[in-house]
Amino acid sequence: MRIGFFTDTYTPQINGVVTSIRLFATALEARGHEVYVFAPTPRHPDDADRVVRFPSMPWAFQPEMRVASPVSIAALRTLDSLKLDIVHSHDPFSIGLLGLNVAWRKRIPYVHTYHTLYPEYVHYVWETRLTKRLAERLSRDFCQRCDSIVAPSSKVDAYLRAWGVTVPVDVIATGIDVETYARPEPVRLDSLRARLSLGAEERVVLFVGRLGREKNIELLLRALWHSRHPNVKLLVVGDGPHRHELEAIAAELGLENRVIFAGYLERADTVAAYHLADVFAFASTTETQGLVIGEAMAAGLPVLAVHDHAVEDFVVDGQTGFVVPALAEDLARALDDLLADETERARLAEASRERSSAFSIECQAEKLEAHYERAMDRFVPRVLLKRPALPRFRR
């Protein structure tokens, strides 16, 4: 198959959507398919021949995101020369909408992955009950124009159905590069521990992700304040618009020496961070999947998370970690219990490692390939209406 990925979110951005696109593109190509990525500028050193860029500019509300103009003669010529079998969009914005237009014109299936619960992100523009309802309605109307939907978790599937989406939906989680996260580079481990000034006796609780308000990292800070363990530190890997506020909260709680804001790390260093840690902590309730949880499990970490359906697709409470109410005291209590019992921590870690294999990128790419085949089998081309002739009036 020739597959076109259409996305307004791509490198050099670092987030779960970008990771999902790159992992699936690599895995599908390994299965013999051709994958073309249509994305906004700027170009990235890792761009292959099959990455086509459209002009873009930073979004005013969030400069790390791009607003693309899907008007590029070179890009459109490349697009017209390709005989795509299927279009797969990863957001409903300008390049995603271009993909919809391409699919309709070329009379091929249009698949969409609903990566983000947009009603939970309206606070970046204007948060009211009306804007949330509007985001729900726009999500439903867009999905209804697709031929099929990929939901990264059962949580997303439930939301789409509740909003009135009736097109076929398959739950296919983004896969994990299990081998990469299972084996860190020993040199990186020692180097990162030295850079972060972590002593051998210190226990490390890790969070990896974008520092946005919706990630609820403040709850992790308050749980750390409630923790009774004398030698525990919170390592925060990632960056984002909420970082300065989080640093201020840490200072207010007197946690400056117990919280490390490491910023974005190279991939090999991120893998090393998973293996330096004793527990992975996650407090977000707005996730559509929580890819970093799968990465942590592949690295053999027990997961401490708050109740959320997307998280519970990964974490089996009491088997691969603990899922607790979204209260700082409950998180702190569970954390202290984990850190105090090394045998229990090892049991959970081994179960996490075993469960992560079910979410390998190879398994998930096979499911996505089957989704494409079903979409093509049941596809009925839309009738393209001709522009009606203008009526003629007699004098």
Fold and architecture overview:
- By secondary structure, the protein is an alpha/beta fold.
- It has helices at 16-30, 73-81, 94-106, 129-144, 154-163, 178-182, 186-195, 217-226, 243-252, 267-276, 291-298, 309-312, 328-340, 342-356, 361-377; strands at 2-6, 34-40, 51-54, 56-59, 62-68, 86-89, 110-113, 148-151, 169-171, 203-208, 232-237, 259-263, 279-282, 303-306, 321-324.
- A seven-stranded parallel β-sheet has the order 3-2-1-6-7-8-9, with helices on both faces.
- Strand 14 (303-306), helix 12 and strand 15 (321-324) form a beta-alpha-beta unit.
- The mean pLDDT is 92.
Per the CATH scheme, the topology name of the largest domain is Rossmann fold
| Count of helix runs | 15
Q: For this entry, what is the oligomeric state of its chains?
A: single chain
Main pleated sheet: 7 strands, parallel
CATH superfamily of the largest domain: Glycogen Phosphorylase B
**Helical percentage:** 40-55%
Distance between the termini: 57 Å
Adjacency order of strands in the biggest sheet: 3-2-1-6-7-8-9
Q: Which class do the helix and strand fractions yield?
A: alpha/beta
What's the domain count?
2
Contiguous runs where pLDDT drops below 50 for at least 5 residues: none
Mean pLDDT: 92
Q: Tell how many strands the DSSP assignment holds.
A: 15
| Overall 3D shape | globular
CATH class category name of the largest domain: Alpha Beta
Alpha carbon gyration radius: 23 Å
CATH architecture of the largest domain: 3-Layer(aba) Sandwich
Beta-strand share of residues: 15-25%
Reading the helices and strands in chain order gives EHEEEEHEHEHEHEHHEHEHEHEHEHEHHH
